[in-house]
Design a protein that fits this description.
The chain has one domain: Nucleoside Triphosphate Pyrophosphohydrolase. 32% of the residues lie in helices and 31% in strands. Strands 1, 2, 3, 4, 5, 6, 7 and 8 form an 8-stranded mixed β-sheet that branches.
Length: 177
């Protein structure tokens, strides 16, 4: 299994604390359930430059930069949940890929301080519409940034790599056209 990282790890120096954070939660990693979440990398072509950019949002609890993600919803497929979360958290709608783009892992900290290991299934969503009114507006900040900037802002090492992989994939697709 890939490394897990706490949502509480600070942006600066997060790599230094990664192993100690992981080690302090070894029991949860090896003796408890692993929870699933679904997420979307929401991208669009920059209106002026034509390059791809991605939306990132802040988490409600810690204010750290993340991508839209959430828990399973009964009766919904993973890619449908990812699309719902993209709308609820970032106010974007578009065409989502059914096939997972990748996975990343982290330790989710609940309000009571309890941490649980999560594996996040990631889907690409090409944004076709941005909405001014959406469920979590005012609860989060959102920004459209380059994939490189997004990778520098998120804390999860695997997510950083997936953002950079998505950027390379989209550049290759653009070059083929």
């Amino acid at each position: 299994m890939a490394p897990l990282i706490s949502e509480q790890t600070k942006s600066s120096g997060g790599s230094d604390r990664f192993l100690s954070d992981l080690a302090s939660h070894a029991d949860a990693l090896f003796h408890g359930p692993i929870y699933e979440q679904y997420a979307a990398i929401c991208y669009r072509k920059h209106p002026e430059f034509g390059t791809a950019e991605v939306v990132i949002v802040t988490s409600r609890e810690s204010g750290r930069w993340v991508i839209p993600k959430g828990w399973p919803i009964k009766g919904k497929k993973p890619h449908e949940v990812a699309a719902i979360e993209a709308f609820e958290e970032a106010g974007v709608r578009g065409k989502i890929k059914k096939k997972p783009f990748g996975y990343f892992t982290y330790l989710k900290q609940h309000a009571d301080g309890h941490r649980v290991p999560c594996i996040v299934q990631l889907h690409l969503l090409e944004v076709e519409k941005t909405c001014e009114d959406f469920p979590e507006r005012g609860q989060r900040r959102s920004e459209w940034v380059s994939f490189i900037e997004a990778a520098s802002r998120v804390r999860e090492p695997e997510l950083k790599g997936l953002l950079l992989m998505a950027d390379r994939k989209l550049r290759r697709m653009k070059a083929k056209k």
